[in-house]
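Q: dITP/XTP pyrophosphatase, please. Structure only.
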Amino acid sequence: ERLCLATHNAGKAREVAALLAEHGIEVVTAGELGLPVPEETETSFIGNATLKAKAAAGASGMVSLADDSGFSVAALDGAPGVYTADWAEQPDGSRDYAAAMAKVERLARHSPDRKAWFSCALVLAWPDGHVEAFLGEAPGEWVWPPRGAQGFGYDPIFVPAGESRTFAEMDPARKHAISHRAAAFRQLKAACLPHG
Ligand code: ITT
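A: Structure for dITP/XTP pyrophosphatase:
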């Protein structure tokens, strides 16, 4: 079985590929296939994941899986949320996550409320237009300064509920057991992957 992974983000691709590999599913990414990057015009994780999965299924003719995810801070009314990647975007198109994390700290440091969460929408799209959508969350707190070098994106400033280490301080297997991506994947698995 081969699936198109509708992402151009290497960190995500690594995590989703690892989750799928346990089920014997091989992936090829939209980046590897040279598919165009669709513009994310929706205002929800599910909306953007649907748009990316459908675009990849249409262009590749393969069953395609998209991940739209983000980081939310309670004191910022859920920002950056669907704009999590945009907060890291530089004028030259590259991404600076140290700057994005510093922006979170600058805007949220005055609030005693440190609650934060990651969200992950996973959408599977078939070439015939059928879609299945799943949403997972990981609750926790944001911390400052950033800690750890594993993972990607905003992992160095997020400590999941009940843990003392940031996602970036955990080994990948631990993050995979408790992450927003793992929560969404468990639902996808229950609904779509053959059992036994
Ligand atoms: P694709 O659309 O090509 O998949 P993207 O990076 O643009 O890649 P999103 O629009 O979904 O993806 O943006 C997600 C943002 O949230 C991005 O900046 C990530 O770094 C961040 N993010 C998502 N999951 C994360 C995780 O598990 N740990 C840390 N940061 C994460």
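A: Brief note, in case it's useful. Residues 2-192 form a domain with the Maf protein fold (CATH 3.90.950.10).
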